Every structure is written in structure tokens, then in C-alpha cells.
Amino acid sequence: MDEQYWDEIFAHFRAAIEKEGGILPSVSLIAEKENDPFKVLIATILSLRTKDEVTIASASRLFALAENPDAMQHLSLSAIQEAIYPAGFYKTKAKTIKEISRILVEQYAGKVPSTQQELLSLPGVGVKTANLTLNLGFQIEAICVDCHVHQIANRMGWVTTKTPEQTEKVLQQVMPRRFWIPLNELLVRYGQLICTPISPFCSKCPESDRCPKLKVTRSR
Fold first, then answer.
1. Does the annotation mark 128 as catalytic?
2. Among residues 19, 39, 128, 215, which one is catalytic?
3. Is 70 within 8 Å of 30 (Cβ atoms)?
4. pLDDT (tens digit, 9 = 90+) per residue, 188-220?
5. 19 vs 195, 198, 209, CA distance in Å?
6. Quick check: is 51 catalytic?
7. Which residues contact 172 (CB under 8 A, 6 or more apart)?
8. What separation in angstroms does the CA of 52 have from each of 42, 167, 189, 193?
9. Could you tell me the sign of the dihedral formed by the alpha carbons of 34, 40, 45, 48, in that order?
10. Distance between CA atoms of 31 and 34, rounded to whole angstroms?
11. Catalytic residue among 70, 93, 146, 215
């Protein structure tokens, strides 16, 4: 797979998303507006198992109360919970956000660290959250693999892996670095609108003819 292949894939997927009236995922929209690593980190935590429209609304209410780690750590737990409700697991996320803010103030002078290792040391931060923060908060090249990226990469035959962590490592070997940052936001939206987890809309996919459709048992 050469660079021309990836250019074509990305162009085709973008065109298909636009045809369906799709927009960027919630964290990408927040990052585009705010350009703040702290807000990207917190918005990514809020987005886990939460619909985009809920994430955007929750983040907006929360950042209206506190825009930086120092202000956030001084909010009461109940105030954070109320602001982010009904985000999924909002009580757990509120504790995580408050604790992360405290650690950032005490250990990082109120700044979000810009390495994967340091981000992973923060409570509630996994590889996906760390890499998305690096991507959108710092414009650092990193492949962010969630369920959509993992599934589509396997369906397309780019990788043959069992876990998102394995997918990340293989994609780093087969995909040129300039595609690493836009990969997640493109495939998340593509997976939501067209290449859905169950019964994907192969009839709407511009890559249907050359996609091997691995493990796809039923499509529309």
C-alpha cells in the first residue's frame, strides 16, 4: 500500500461522509474551536461511551465553570457532576477530572504533559485518550485506535489483529505518518455513518469493490 492508495482512501471516505451530511466527531470540533490540550484531554474523557451531542454540551457547561486545571480542581465534585450529566459514567468521570486537574497542578505546573508515557500515568487515561490528546492537543503524530478504527482496519485488510493496541502498532508500520493524525476522526465518523459495526452500508461505500469485507456477514 503506497501513499497514493492512502490518499485515495482518505479522499473517498471524506467525500462519502460529506454526502451523508456528516461532521467531525465531538472532540475534534472542540479541539478545532479551543486549541487547548487541557480541554482536549477532558473532552476526550467525557466522550468515552457518550454520544457526540452530549459530549459537546457537557464540555461546554464544564468549561464555562473552569477553563484550566487550577480552576477545575477547586470545583466541588457535585458541581462537576451536574455540569457533565448525562455523560456516560458521569460520577466516575467527575472524580477522574478533578483528580487529573489536581495532579496537573501539583506535578506539571498546570500544564498537560506532551508524551504518551506521562499521559498514561494520569488516572482514567488509556492509550486512545493519550493519543487523541497528542493528536488534537499538540499536533503530535500518533495513531489513535478506537473500536471503529480497529474494526475498519481489519475489514479493509490493512491489519489482521485482535486488539486496538495491536492495530495501532501494525498501522504505524503500514501507514505513512502524515495520515496518523486525521485517521481517527475520519474513521470514527465513517464507522458511525457508513461502515457501521453491524450490517455496514457497503452500498454507500466508494471502496466497496476493492474492500475484502473481512468478517462482514451481512451488509446493506
1. yes
2. 128
3. no
4. 999 999 999 999 999 999 999 999 999 999 999
5. 14, 21, 19
6. no
7. 143, 180
8. 14, 24, 11, 13
9. positive
10. 5
11. 146
| Interatomic CA distance for residues 1 and 24, integer angstroms | 26
Closest to 151 in 3D by CA, of 205, 196, 202, 208: 196
Closest CA to 46 of 34, 56, 32, 31: 56
Calpha distance 158→219 (Å, rounded): 20
Nearest CA to 50 out of 23, 81, 90, 101 is that of: 90
pTM: 0.83
H or E element in which residue 116 lies: helix 116-120
| Burial class (CB within 10 angstroms; exposed 0-12, middle 13-18, buried 19+) of 109 | exposed
Mean pLDDT of the chain: 95
Residues with Cβ < 8 Å from 7, sequence gap 6 or more? Answer: none
The grid cell for 91 is 460520577
